[in-house]
């Protein structure tokens, strides 16, 4: 064991979009914080944040029908509103970064991309029209359009209509100012920018484990010696749950992870690609997990366009793409056995759905795709793997453990540790999630920090949906900087 000890303020475990965002905000409010980032792979942004490991949708509630569930004939739009408010913060942060660094071309990580929802049966057409009437009244969604006319839909998204036998009950909402984001590229940009500050250090090929809390400091061993950190962020994606378990944090008792893998159908045929501009979502199949809502999606990855369809969910034991098949079995402990077993019993439908999805062949997957794009030819599409998601299993008041499809940040009682669990809405809300950590763990009524946050986030502390004038001002500004007009 080496004797060198490195005393630092903040250790970030994992080099994905979350750690990169937290470090960016913290260094803006206090450039002298000694922040070290530890990544187990040779480079950052290679797991869930990598471009093809996620859908690159700047989730803002425009097109994701699972954010506006209907119960007893009432559509609840609260989640769409809150995700949209959170995404506004991400856009403000990215615009701040681009404005302050003339060497970052915004189009290298973000482009304008229409966000549409398309349905093709009576029930969902009724739902979409009702949803549109509610949501388009909100300032955040101003500009959204709705149509049931096949010709109109064809003029915007021809692939959805060509060859469709029955267009009696189709409907589409469209929001022109949606975005496509390359979160892997964004992670690299943020980290490269951070590296200009001598107080920020990055250590790759460092798999962090066996973290101990001794005398108010987190200790762990690395190739450069012992690290003693006053604050630690577990941004290790699917692996964060395992690191938390090793730490035996009381706040994480009963927690577990439920891994779900993903796959895309990809088309590189230029003639087809040029006929589709934007992201078209629809309703998830009955029984499927909410984050497996299918979509037909133009992606802009490192200057190359591809058409993606999916994600198809699947069953896996791995917590990371680069993980091990022992990840899930070894995460079952006496402390979470009840939750994991009962979640399994309560979600047998989901397990069956995932196994069925994993067993699908190309023909079945094409059948799904043809519901969106009736003339899709098998030979134009190939299957590639998407990323892994680890959903949260947690204790509940009742008899059964609870399966959560959202994100949750766990803190220790002194707010010297924060761990991000779950993966939805994910990277899009990275600014809001990391801002929550900054507020809970670093602000301490520090007026200077708050002033600096207001410079990064012009709408800091303000609900934009309640302030249409400010919303317009903020949007005009970041759309110009990020070239989204
Ligand atoms: C199929 C799919 C589609 C998605 N679509 C979208 C979308 O359209 N829009 C959206 O906003 N979000 C989407 N997401 C979610 C999004 O990808 C994630 O929320 C986000 O990338 C998570 O970032 P992260 O930094 O927490 O994790 P990651 O990017 O996974 O980074 C974690 C890092 O920690 C490292 N690490 C792990 N263990 C250790 C260790 N012990 N020591 C050191 N390093 C470690 C890993 O190597 C990795 O680099 C999608 C996810 C999936 C799977």
Task: Describe the protein's architecture and organization.
The chain has 485 residues and is of the alpha+beta class. It has one domain (5-466): FAD/NAD(P)-binding domain (3-Layer(bba) Sandwich). The chain has 15 helices and 21 strands. The chain has helices at 17-29, 78-99, 122-135, 150-156, 158-161, 183-194, 240-247, 270-273, 327-330, 337-346, 348-358, 362-372, 430-443, 447-456, 468-481; strands at residues 5-13, 35-38, 70-71, 74-75, 110-112, 115-119, 145-147, 171-175, 179-181, 200-203, 212-214, 217-222, 225-234, 256-267, 279-281, 295-301, 304-315, 381-394, 402-404, 407-411, 417-422. Helix 1 packs parallel to helix 6 (183-194), helix 1 (17-29) packs across helix 13 and helix 2 crosses helix 15 (468-481). The longest helix has 22 residues, at 78-99. It is globular and about 70 Å long. The chain starts with a strand and ends with a helix. The mean pLDDT is 93. Flavin-adenine dinucleotide (FAD) is lined by residues 13-19, 38-41, 46-49, 53-57, 59, 183, 206-209, 235-237, 239, 243, 262, 311, 320, 386-389, 420, 423, 425-428.
